[in-house]
Amino acid sequence: MEESIGKWRLISPFFIILLLHCIAILLFTRGFLLTRTELSTFSACSDITNSPCYNPNFNLTEDQNQNDSRVCWTKPAVDRVVIIVLDALRFDFLASSSLFEGEKKPWMDKLQVLQNLASDEKSSAKIFKALADPPTTSLQRLKGLTTGGLPTFVDVGNSFGAPAIIEDNLIHQLVQNGKRVLMMGDDTWVQLFPDQFGKSYPYPSFNVKDLHTVDDGCVHHLIPSLYEEDWDVLIAHFLGVDHAGHIFGVDSTPMIEKLEQYNGILEKVIEALKNQSGPGGLHENTFFIVMGDHGQTLNGDHGGGTAEEVETSLFAMSLKNPPASIPSALDTASCVLDSNGKKVCASTIQQLDFAATVTALLGVPFPYGSIGRVNPELYGLSSGTWNGPVLSASDHKQWSDLEKWMQNYANVLCINSWQVKRYIDAYSAASVIGFSLEDLRHVADMYDQAQNNWSRKSGNFSLCGNEIPNESCDASLTVLQGKIDAFSNFLASVAELARSKWTEFDLKMMGVGLGIFVLSLFVHIIAIRRSDKLCQISCPSDGDWHISLRVISAIFLVAIRACSFLSNSYILTEGKVASFLLGTTGILNLRSSIVKKETSIEAVAFLLLNFFLRFTTEVGLSKQEGLSAFMNLYPLRMLAIDHGHPVLTFVSDIVPMLVLILLSYLLLKSTADNHCRVVLKYVFNTGAILSYMLIALHWALESNMLTLPLVLKHVDRDYLPRLIYAIGLGLLALSALTNFFKEEMSNYTESVLTKTISMLSACSSTVILLLGRQGPFIALACIIGGWCITRLGLLEVKTKHGIVGVFTADPLPVTQWSLFAVCLFFSTGHWCAFDGLRYGAAFIGFDEFNLIRQAILLTIDTFGVSLILPILGLPLLVVLQYPYSQGSGGTQGRGIFFVKLSQVFLMYGFITATTTMVTIICVTLQRRHLMVWGLFAPKFVFDVVGLLLTDFIICLTSLYHFCRVEDGTK
């Protein structure tokens, strides 16, 4: 038997399972997250002659004729456009606080200059609530804004290295039609549109700790550029608000300061524009837009589909005199009176409509893939869309002007609809799957109805004369409104169809992937049963029933958690579900100890720890609202302590450092009685404790409360984190090298214990540093939780007559270990969504962006305490329980020990794979669900990434621990 238990017999199942999972996930992902087909066709000015809406009277400017080569789709209404993008601009950052219920928040009413312009009746300015389509990452939003299409979920992965847009887009149309585009700010624009800008001043955008570099660069170039004539469209993308949100949250001083800074910048911009807006001035016919690409939660996160994330702001103003009012049927404004009795309003616009509206204003073709509608309120703000001088409300000729504007807008919508219809037809013909015949028939019917309505009563006629409006005039406006409504309904129908069925699902490929995944679970089960045979386990006896009951309990817990993923509500509260199940196991352990009349401090401690994790999951230990909730506790309010109180600040700086000292003591204590690899043990202990000291020094340098020697104040703050990373990497390399040295295997349990603690100490410093000041507390929770789970497992395997004669690993502690890891993930402020990623952690120690480096740091921060440390610590479940097992001596005991260790790894991987498989089944069933891209797909991505990472770490850890197995078994 000893010779049969070789290294590769124990390790090979891990690599087979990893390979099966990679193939299954690759195939399923190719079927589930296919991007929409990007057509290579580009719109051209000459295309308009093929449109049934083409009418030279509408499509030519006054100085053009039908043979003019400059003929294009719509009459240019503006000469220049200034677009200022304020990244992550929430709607309540710009809109008046009077539009919101409840008390005024500190971040409201800071952009006063825009609010005053929008509420001034003499100004042609409006504030819009702009609705974005999830996912709300910056790349997807910029792509959607410029192409006029909907984002695809799989593009989220490109957010850290944007590929150039290859389909038709707003920037391409501007450049192709002679418009000079100037860009400054976020360098994502240059990545998306290389070689498209006449001039560009890009700045690195991914260092979320940097609040000022990009903004200062924009300010440096923006104001001088407003006095230059070498551009037609200016784009300035500011990032300060987005970065302030990620690091500090919305309700923070840096956020308020940023908004106030923006208000001052916008005042200077508007002043420069107005000074040159007179007749013959540089900005006589300039259109000014201030907008956000997406919103953000109170934590400063974005990426999902919540209202806070998809609701952003848009301010638009024409520098010419305000035009007449558009028809009330097209006006979406919601108005209230503020505290001064002044009317404040806000309209609504879909970001999907931005590209079509801007191209219509500039008179260039719509991007070929655009499915947006020319927004009437934004389009009507420009005086250039009105065919005559602006008249007062008392002049009856305004009715004639309104009729002409509605004719013009109806013509624009006709062209808009024709473009969308030809794109949908081309897409369905080119795409593998496309839209269903029923959907295409419905779209075609709506378009034909709108076109028939247009053809019957089209023409450049006017029933509204210069006299008092009459019934004929009313009838004319009604007819025009009917045309507008028909085209608007068609465009809205296409947009809704695209939102519901845009992504192409290859069900066959998804089915094959799911089938291979199920096969991997059978491989898991076979490998676990094979471990039993290697240990020569016979049929369970009467004394083994208790173990069998624990197996049933473990299966039941895993099944409940897995099935909860079939509900979107339970996915949203996944952390609470895991905490509840973990607490249930704690109660069962407490009951068992009471029944056995044994005092179990571990069971009580485990329940208290679970309560702590549940509390931190509720309020978010690292989040802004978590701090706010904590500060609202009655005792703190009674003592008049707020979040800025010096005492609380001092405590928050000192206590994490004290916990680091406690962690150092526990590390020394855990290896004090271990005599295996003495020299290496001291090397690892010294390296880990040195890293803890450097972490404390790093935090002290960042603190404003702690007084440090003058020489330390000049230490580069990036140097210490890099040194900590280097020490950790060095310790990991040393751990790997020690496996090449022959050792005495008689003390194999001590050897595995030393190697496990060494690996944990090498990795823990980096994880603690990335987690911030909550890191030491979480690390301490990991130690307490691991100790409780192992000790409770030991209490269960004891019987009145000694030890249960079974070598099979107990699955219940492994299940508890897995649930505990899930609770740690949520208690550290993470969740399964892209706005749950803590991007700031990726830049601790670095200011420059490097895709691989930052991805590694972000992965360690995200999965450090939920995957990396728990998997590295799995051997403790065997090492600390093994002295109670039979046959612990000699080569037979050593072989059984490593078989049992491999079975623990298999059980943990099986639990992770089972929950992931249910997630895959869930997204398959819910692929047409309204929340598929906002909730189910992010959960799928996090789970499959977590599973592959779990498999990979298990493979490495098995190589690390089993490399010397053959030396002792043969």
TrEMBL record:
The keyword Transferase applies. Keywords: Endoplasmic reticulum, Glycoprotein, GPI-anchor biosynthesis, Membrane, Transferase, Transmembrane, Transmembrane helix. It is a multi-pass membrane protein. The chain crosses the membrane at residues 12-33, 509-528, 549-572, 647-667, 679-699, 719-740, 777-794, 863-884, 904-925, 940-962. It is found in: Endoplasmic reticulum membrane. Pfam families: Phosphodiest (PF01663), PIGO_PIGG (PF19316). InterPro entries: Alkaline_phosphatase_core_sf (IPR017850), Phosphodiest/P_Trfase (IPR002591), PIG-O_N (IPR037675), PIGG/GPI7_C (IPR045687), PIGO/GPI13 (IPR039524). One of its GO terms (cellular component) is endoplasmic reticulum membrane. Signal peptide: none annotated. GO terms for molecular function: mannose-ethanolamine phosphotransferase activity. Residues 819-954 form the GPI ethanolamine phosphate transferase 2 C-terminal domain. Pathway: Glycolipid biosynthesis; glycosylphosphatidylinositol-anchor biosynthesis. GO terms for biological process: GPI anchor biosynthetic process. The keyword Transmembrane helix applies. Belongs to the PIGG/PIGN/PIGO family. PIGO subfamily. This is GPI ethanolamine phosphate transferase 2 C-terminal domain-containing protein. It comes from Papaver nudicaule.
